[in-house]
Amino acid sequence: MSALSLRSRIGLRSVALFYLAALLIVPVGMIFYRTFEHGLSEPIDAVTSPEGLHAFWLTIVCVGIAVPLNTLFGVVTALVLVRQNFRGKALLNAAIDLPFAISPVVIGLALFLVYAPRNSWFGGWLADNGVQIIFSLPGMILATIFVSLPFVVREVMPVLQEIGTDQEEAAETLGATPWQTFWRVTLPAIRWGVTYGVVLATARALGEFGAVSVVAGNVSGAGGTQTLPLYVKDQFEGFSLAGAYAAALVLAVLAIAVLFSMNLLQRRSARVTDDEEDHDLPGPAVFVPQPIEKEA
Amino acid sequence: MASADTAVARPPREGLRFPLGGAALTRGAATLWISLIVLLPLAAVFSRAFDDGMGHFWEAITDKEAVAAIKLTLISSLIVVVINAVMGTLIAWVLVRDDFRGKRIVNSIIDLPFALPTIVAGLTLIALYGPNSPIGVHAAYTRAAVVMALLFVTLPFVVRSVQPVLLEVDREMEEAAASLGAPNHRIFRSIILPNLGPAIIAGVALAFARAVGEFGSLVLLTGNIPFKTQAASVYIFGRVQTNDLSGAAAVSVFLLAISVGLLFALNLFARWRSRHERA
User: What pLDDT, in 10s, does the model give residues B122-156?
Assistant: First the structure.
């Protein structure tokens, strides 16, 4: 297996596993323990309280609007970046990665400076016309769109590069309209990329805290602007630990479900491409900025 | 007459009609989307930071509390990436070269910090290392807590950038060195490390960019005590709450410059390397 002796191999393994246990595995396990420490009724009451349910509903609304929009524009943007040549393409490509590089608080502040009712670029004008963006749902949706924007683009681009245009050209030669070619040839070929992107964008959108918390203003209660992550913080700071841990548990379970489905998807797509070697490879490197491949 | 040669030489995409309403429309839609969602708000941050001139910008980022917050963020991020460089490489090595039961589960758990909401990440660490710690470690509301939270959220970067390289590294060189009697640390230093170097640097740069801007996991865990445990992102949040938007924007521009500059440098580095290796 390795040039190392068994003893040093076990030594390194122990160090790695201890580090992961202390930093990651045991703390995440503690969320489960803390939630059910004092029985089942407290956490269940907390997440099914009107505030808890409202927070859950707001989270679903933000994700339900942000992810489909990012999927649509993500596929379009990926097609544009891979299949077209135009001035400013490198700039557009670089701009896609900005949401990965920017602090969530800065994202929130940026939206604030554009849309806040006072002292902002458009907020005053919008308020005069009866549109409120900051401290209400539209701002939270904008924040969610911002943070989850790169995922679909970044997952679809490499797939588009890899499949090339041969099949699409064949379809066109055979008389297919561009629309038919897209639905019947391109979309089926990039479906795994799109799926990865959607799953990752959903995970990010579900859990976004910083950006949403700046623009939401944290109006608590059943009519307020708390998504589930904001509810966790509010409950914790209000010394309602059962509520904080229970809501965090819901989010943690969703995150673990995302990981699990990514793993299944990877194995599935690995089987599709019949590449046994890839099974132990890490997940798609969503966080790595990708330069556009220069054409020869 | 079109010969086979011209068919091959033909640029593949020129003749292809573009779906979804044509090339110009889709290009316009993509550009408009990114501009409205991402670029316009960021422009507002820059505009606000320099609204009252360079003097005010300088004043805002040299405010005593701001300097303390920025210093804490930079020093903690530095400590965090050094630990990540060592532990991330070690974990990647174990995942690729070692074999044990449950390895696949450990491998997928590495990504958990990317999937887990940051506020939950902070709460998990409080649950174990907070005031009611079941193991008697009370790290919450200290600077160690800042480092711990940043270690949690940046864990995958180095592991995930080193792992694929390690999978492809030619093992014969190591085996040859070992059979010639080279000790382990020598093999690591002269053979493994030079191969992994670029991947470690890439992972470290990404982790640093992420750590500098991290917010959610710090909010609950660090107590946000000014001059002690208040990180730069939390400072910005506080400024927004007290309606000092210019101060918030100034420190934001500083953070933006660091993380965007770092990613830009990383991109250049990657391009330089791919050209270098091809030559």
Answer: 999 999 998 888 888 888 899 999 999 999 999 99
Count of helix runs (H) and strand runs (E) in chain B? 15, 0
Chain B: residue nearest A141 by CA?
Answer: B37
Q: Is B184 on the interface with A (CB under 8 A)?
A: yes
- Reply yes or no on domain A48-276 having CATH 3.10.105.10: no
Kindly report, residue by residue over B10-22, the tens digit of the pLDDT: 444 445 677 777 8
Q: Spell out the SS3 assignment of A147-181.
A: HCCHHHHHHHHHHHHHHCCHHHHHHHHCCCCHHHH
pLDDT tens by residue, A71-100: 999 999 999 999 888 888 988 998 998 998
B229–A contact, CB cutoff 8 A:
no
Report which DSSP code applies to B35: I
B42 reaches A (C-beta below 8 A): yes
Which residues on chain A are in Cβ contact (under 8 Å) with B89?
none
In a domain, B4, yes or no: no
pTM listed for this prediction: 0.89
Whether residues B28 and B140 fall in one domain? no
Say if B5 falls within a structural domain.
no
List the CATH number of the domain containing B145: 1.10.3720.10
CB contact under 8 Å between B18 and A83, yes or no, is: yes
Q: Which domain holds residue B25?
A: 15-49
Q: Which of residues 2-21 of B touch A (CB under 8 A)?
A: 12-13, 15-20
Whether A112 contacts A120, CB under 8 Å: yes
Burial degree of B260 (CB within 10 A; 0-12, 13-18, 19+): middle
Beta-carbon contacts below 8 Å between A and B? 323
Chain B nearest CA to A274, separation (Å): 18
B68 pLDDT exceeds 60? yes
